[in-house]
């Protein structure tokens, strides 16, 4: 494990060059209402408006564009609760290679449909009884496919870091950055960009309260494994951090915070009604934590990554009625 070569900000820069012209440079939105609520200057990096609806396109496209001729011909295999699946399927389509996607039985309908729509070959497994990593490795072995994991891969981390890089290039240095935490690809890439472009900025990783393995790992110093957490934040239902993401998080992240499902629903309602933005539950984690920290953010310049917007409208309506 000590021999892992962690990605650096140079890898984020290389990723930015590879995705240029393929990924959107997503807009940064501000809201007077939010600034008044928090007493801070807040910048939302809108990855809910990224291609396929989430930042994951960045990491997927970066990883796939590094395949050699042989790997391209056999294609890619990925396991994902949704957004990584769509990202890999779309990136593979753009790069002209086949994609096999392993998805949980309870993945949101819209995400399964979108993955198929991008031409991905979808294989379904039971999230609570089967090991998706083993299924992925078997398929990879049998058909010579290259497995690209959703977060624990240097090229994925470097690609995800391009969102924060774009944010800092637009806003200049910030005092605090909030981003969701699942397996840690987004936050570790964001932390690499932060340490290079805004070194004094605090970096907060935010995970669902129901599954705070990241917080436990951060505080204890070793990777904690948990059961699949039951939360509406389906993009962050991970069981553990990765071997690449954990050391970067320990080194470069300031703290790991949590938010409840009820807080996420409040944020979704706010984004839809006040900012005309559809943000999926997981995408709201950063803002939910910033609201909790309101007292210490007074007068500060704050970046928040809205990581994705993929929630079907039926589900969206159901969540709005719950609370
Ligand atoms: C995957 C995902 C996350 C979590 O990202 P990690 O790199 O696994 O930490 C957060 N938000 C959305 C919308 C996602 O799809």
From TrEMBL:
InterPro entries documented for this protein: TrpB-like_PALP, TrpB-like_PALP_sf
Residue ranges of the TM segments: none
Cofactor: pyridoxal 5'-phosphate
Record-annotated Tryptophan synthase beta chain-like PALP domain positions: 23-308
Top-level taxon of origin: Bacteria
Any one GO molecular-function label of the UniProt entry: L-serine ammonia-lyase activity
Signal peptide, first to last residue: none
Pfam family, one: PALP
Nucleotide-binding among keywords: no
UniProt keyword annotations, A-Z: Lyase, Pyridoxal phosphate
Keyword Membrane: no
Record family assignment: Belongs to the serine/threonine dehydratase family.
PANTHER family registered for this protein in UniProt: SERINE / THREONINE RACEMASE FAMILY MEMBER, SERINE RACEMASE
Name of the molecule in the record: Serine/threonine dehydratase
């Amino acid at each position: 494990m000590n021999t892992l070569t962690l990605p650096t900000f140079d890898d984020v820069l290389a990723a930015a060059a590879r995705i240029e012209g393929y990924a959107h440079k997503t807009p940064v939105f501000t809201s007077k209402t939010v600034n008044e609520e928090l007493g801070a200057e807040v910048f939302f990096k809108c990855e809910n408006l990224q291609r396929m609806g989430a930042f994951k396109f960045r990491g997927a496209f970066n990883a796939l564009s590094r395949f050699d001729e042989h790997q391209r011909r056999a294609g890619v295999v990925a396991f994902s609760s949704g957004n990584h699946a769509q990202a890999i399927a779309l990136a593979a389509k753009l790069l002209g290679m086949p994609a096999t996607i392993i998805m949980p039985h309870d993945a949101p309908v819209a995400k399964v449909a979108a993955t198929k729509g991008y031409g991905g070959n979808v294989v379904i497994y039971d999230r609570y009884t089967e090991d998706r990593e083993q299924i992925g490795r078997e398929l990879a072995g049998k058909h010579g496919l290259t497995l690209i994991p959703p977060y624990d891969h240097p090229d994925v981390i470097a690609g995800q870091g391009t969102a924060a890089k774009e944010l800092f290039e637009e806003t200049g240095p910030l005092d605090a950055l909030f981003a969701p935490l699942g397996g840690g690809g987004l936050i570790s890439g964001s932390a690499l960009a932060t340490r290079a472009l805004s070194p004094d900025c605090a970096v907060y990783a935010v995970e669902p309260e129901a599954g705070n393995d990241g917080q436990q790992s951060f505080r204890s110093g070793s990777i904690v494994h948990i059961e699949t957490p039951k939360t509406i934040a389906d993009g962050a239902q991970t069981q553990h951090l990765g071997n690449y993401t954990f050391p970067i998080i320990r080194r470069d992240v300031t703290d790991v915070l949590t938010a409840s499902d009820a807080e996420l629903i409040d944020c979704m309602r706010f984004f839809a009604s006040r900012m005309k933005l559809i943000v999926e539950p997981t995408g709201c984690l950063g803002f939910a934590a910033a609201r909790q920290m309101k007292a210490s953010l007074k007068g500060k310049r704050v970046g928040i990554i809205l990581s994705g917007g993929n929630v079907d409208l039926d589900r969206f309506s159901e969540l709005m009625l719950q609370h």
